[in-house]
Amino acid sequence: MKIRSSKVLALLTTLMLFLSLTAILPKAFSQAATVIRVEPYWNEFGNPEGDPIPIPGTQFTVTVTVYDVPALYGYDLKFRWNNTYINYVNHTVHAKWTLEIKDDPYPTEGWYWIAYSKMAPESPASGTVPIFSMTFEIIKQPYNYETGDPTTVDPIDTFLDFISTDLSDPDGQPIPHDVEPATVRIWERIPVKIILKVDPPEIKQLESGTSFAVNVLIGLDPKKWNLTQFNATLSFNSTLIKAEGVTEGAWPKQYASTTTELLKQIDNETGTLQYALKFGPPLNSGAPSTGVLFTVTFYVAFESRVKITETPESCVIGLKPVTIIDETGLIPEEQLEITNSTYIAYRSSPVAKFTWSPFKQFLPRGQAITFNASESYHKLGLRIVNYTWDFEGVVRSTTSPIYTYTFATVGNKTVTLNVTDEGGYWSITKTYIGILDSPTASFKFTPLKPAVNQTILFNATNSLPGGAPKVSPEKPGYPAEIINYTWDFGDGTVISTTEKVTNYAYKHAGRYTVTLTVTNNYTLSHSYSLPITISKLNSTISINVSTTEAVVNSNVTISGEITPLRPQVNVTIYINNTAITVQTNENGQYIYKWTPTQVGTYSIKARWNGDQDTNPAESETLIVTVTEPSPPTPPVTPTGDILPFIATAIIIIVLIILIVYLKTKRK
Predict the structure, then answer these.
(1) Hey, which of 144, 479, 504, 635 has its CA 20 to 30 A from 458?
(2) CB 202 within 8 A of CB 173
(3) Which CATH superfamily is domain 444-534 in?
(4) Would you say the CATH fold of 540-627 matches that of 355-436?
(5) Residues 6+ apart with CB under 8 A from 374
(6) Please, where are the H alpha helices in 136-199?
(7) Is the whole model's pTM more than 0.85, yes or no?
(8) Are 94 and 128 in contact, with CB atoms under 8 Å apart?
(9) pLDDT tens digits along 361-389
């Protein structure tokens, strides 16, 4: 079938128009998303072959840019990197706007905080906005045997990314965006020399008598070297440290079929240790390229006393000389890469310790607290020359270990002590003390004028518990409650209770001081006192006489009682002006036998003078009249007038008896 050239041309034209539209339309009808990009996104150093080209020290720069931003008025970025392999060198801010909020790198922590903002009436930035550039330096390129399989060369990938990113528009609204970090790839390297390393590279901060181990590591290409013998001298300062022992490491037996220790000698006088090994054939084909050749154990024999401005004593734990022989003969020294270790003598700091008085976890606001740091010391006997106290930002420095301070506000207070010895070394310790409002004791009592044995109600409802209010979610405060009410009534009686109200009755009259002590759940207490007067009881005394009309020389009984009952007390009976004292019995009653000797009218009353708890009382007055006795009455004798009656009565009685007798006899 034949196709005309005009149709082919039309078809091609249509296809080209379609392709053009598909390329243009998405851009015309879509909104590009804002993105924060780290560029270049790929930064590669070294190569997969592990060529021993040293790259530590190599510097490179990346730039952080915001793309396709509609209206940028402020930004807050926290940028980070892995400072194990790369190190911060410097940076340049491109979007250095009017208001600087943050521009602080933290090299030792591996991050950078930058935040800037425009201010009205400035116009926002849009489109592509470079923010900053940062230059780094590569500080570490590990050997292949240090990180994994010693037979391969592996990459180490680390990233330049963000902890957080915030973009805002002129209205302070956040701008949605994406983030594209960058990658830094560092290839491992293969050693061309035999590596000998004393590990760890630095030993410090060890107290006298402490033991520690040092490993001598070996690293090599097993395909290149076939060792037969190793001989090394490890030197050290025997004043600072002393060797205790040496043992063969794990690597020799992994490398060779057999090993033989040719020499193992420690000399702590000269500070040397000699160790020699022989590797017996055949060598193991799958031997690792690195491992521990031998281990030396040391102990610390010395602690430094230097000043803080001086460098503590130190020494190198070093390998020299080292002799290594392979099957071709002695390996030249230039084929050995030796890294030694450094031991730094420990300069101990003083020990900060303190107590306080009153020694309680919670103390009241306004309480003078005496802080005592006399227990602070330096184990080598160095003098402590300064004590610096920090009371929540109030700092006081003194040469005396004792300081008194009063907190004026409530809350959880941090007290920090920093002690400095004569060499300038220092140490700190801290403690926390709760400073609270003390409880407030208060009470009332009723009745206001009580008497002996009368029940009195003491009410402490108005007492306050104290504590400390909530300040923030981080400082929740100290809610308090009163858990004990102790009443001292001033007469030797003390009552402790959890109740707010209590009752009490005094046994004796007098003036007393009542003291209430309230204690809250933080063991803080407060006392409040009120005077109270207990009045005497009123009393009565009764009086009775056996007769109010008596004759001379007759007996008149005078009696009565005291209410309330008062046994064994004196009662005075007044008969006219004559006072007679008697005593009450166990029932509070008194009795007196009076024999008047003269005719007359007598006023009789009783009185008692009261006691410490009872008021005196006087009875009513009774009148007794005394007269002469009547003359004696002559005896009565029968007269003639009654004789007939007596005779008649006798006759009747005899007749009755006779009749009763005769009736009885008949029966």
Answers:
(1) 479
(2) no
(3) Immunoglobulins (2.60.40.10)
(4) yes
(5) 401, 402
(6) 144-147
(7) no
(8) no
(9) 999 999 999 999 999 999 999 999 999 99
